[in-house]
């Protein structure tokens, strides 16, 4: 498995899932999206914001890993969260615009600016509490995608409790099918 190709698939999966969730949530009232549903991040909007806040924090850190990471600079234009519970986009319409901006920046960064060797290097960063840490960059990117998937699972449950279905959520959709059929060979 090529790690860069895998991360590109994960970014494509992330984008597809965010579009599917947006299409369902677009039809909900503000009252429903902000209702306390007993979730860890209280509501649908709370959970959406938490995922986006995590992405903004991590991608802002990643933007400093290389001078080649120009696509991530647009993330720095978004509101800077102070903590993981911040509701930086309380209205779904503004959230949706920011979500799309982050998803496209992530995808463009991976497709056009990252070098596979970057994943072997370490990234030093400061946590939201000011604690300095150094960890493997590739593992941190894996964490970003795992974090998104984990909380979208929670979001899927919240929507299901409202009687809503977001559709197929499996990563399998992004994994290319490998043909096992022997192609017609012409003997010359």
UniProtKB/TrEMBL annotation:
Positions of transmembrane segments: none
Stored Gene3D superfamilies: dinb family like domain
Alphabetical list of SUPFAM superfamilies matching this protein: DinB/YfiT-like putative metalloenzymes
Keywords annotated in UniProt: Metal-binding
PANTHER family xref list: PROTEIN DINB, SLR1116 PROTEIN
Family: Belongs to the DinB family.
Protein name: Damage-inducible protein DinB
């Amino acid at each position: 498995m090529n790690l860069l190709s895998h991360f590109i698939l994960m970014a494509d999966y992330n984008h597809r899932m965010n579009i599917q969730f947006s299409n369902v949530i677009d039809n909900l009232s503000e009252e429903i999206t902000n209702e306390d549903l007993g979730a860890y991040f209280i509501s649908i909007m709370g959970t959406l914001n938490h995922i986006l806040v995590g992405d903004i924090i991590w991608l802002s850190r990643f933007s400093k890993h290389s001078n080649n990471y120009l696509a991530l600079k647009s993330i720095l234009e978004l509101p800077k969260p102070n903590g993981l519970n911040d509701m930086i986009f309380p209205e779904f319409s503004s959230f949706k615009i920011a979500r799309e901006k982050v998803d496209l920046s992530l995808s463009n960064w991976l497709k056009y600016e990252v070098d596979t060797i970057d994943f072997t290097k370490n990234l030093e960063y400061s946590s939201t509490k000011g604690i300095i840490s150094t960890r493997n960059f590739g593992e941190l990117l894996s964490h970003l995608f795992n974090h998104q998937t984990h909380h979208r699972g929670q979001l899927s449950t919240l929507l299901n409790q409202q009687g809503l279905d977001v559709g197929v959520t499996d990563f399998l959709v992004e994994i290319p099918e490998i043909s096992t059929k022997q192609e017609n060979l012409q003997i010359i």
